chitin deacetylase (Mycena rosella), 394 residues
Amino acid sequence: MLALTVLLLPLLSTASVHNHRSHDHSHDAAKRLPNTWYHRSDHPVNSLFKRGAATDGVTYAVVGADGWAAGYPAGPPATLDPSSMPAEWTAALNDAVARKAIPDVPVSTNANGSPVYPTGVDPNSPEVCSATFKCRIAGDIWDAPDGYVGISFDDGPTDASDTLLDFLSANNQPVTHFIIGSNMIWNPAQFTKAFNNGDDMAAHTWTHPLMTTKTNAEVVAELGWTIEIIHNSTGGRIPKFWRPPYGDSDARVTAIAREVFGLQTIIWNQDTEDWSLTNTPPGTTPQAINSSMTQWLTGSKSPGLIALEHELSEQSVASFIAAYPVMKQNNWKLASLAQLMGNNASYLNAASSTADVIGFSNILDAKGGAAASAGGSSSSAPGSASAPAGASKT
Ligand SMILES: [Zn+2]
């Protein structure tokens, strides 16, 4: 995958900032590239998030409106109950296990925030390969191609997302958002704003757990509900990328994400530690973050950077805004993760981030009104999704 990515990057232009409101897709590198496995419209994941078919009269609720948040797990519970997830997801997991596509790695336990495997299980062995222990599973993404900074933000949408999105929009800078599914219930307007900016919407789980501490079924529920709410809020788009909270994945979890949902696992190679700015007491300072980021950004461009950054608080957003000119001044090429992958495609069922959904066009075509304004028509991508006041934070 990385070799392919590097091969394809010369075809990319980071100047080709995409705009959902524009119908000009001529910049899409994807049109010049062969399809990959991820583009298969017949991937089984397509059947996991169909909210019925056009013949059933299915529409997508307007994001944030009455009824839009119905049917999802309540609150962010400590643990999702997998028994309440759709039977299709369980069946897809069972199928993957039967195919022996999911390694039989023991579930870790959460010891004060760190995953601990049973005695005798080596987290760095190829069989386990825990990302927390810096073991890199083949196919997972840790590095950006030389000269690139892949820009992404975890834990949104939040109240602080507005500041970030306004800055990104003013700078024509597309990024990737790793969304906490349950956060969308409280901040639908920020989600819609990011989507309409043309950003990649990716999955970060529903309750933000250490994923290797979760059973196979719990892993499916965490990813499935997050994909479901993104899907139902973007006119049927199925995210291609996910990032494990705390970077905690292993061979089992990565395989479930890939085999059940077709997800590509993204980690990072630099941690800004911006997440700890609002800890009590704070784990770092804006000055310390700026200092370490400046050090990376004035250093080697090989490999490129994938920095861990958050839209968790105004402070974490401010740390990115402070570093942005340093990225520019040091001639880094800045890209969303979908752009880094060489084809600007952040969804499994669309050829590019701005392209129409494939495999679901019948649903989008079938209904006007709410369906069209929530997800855009099939001819115009997301378009003019309105952002009603919706749920308030309590
Ligand atoms: Zn996170």
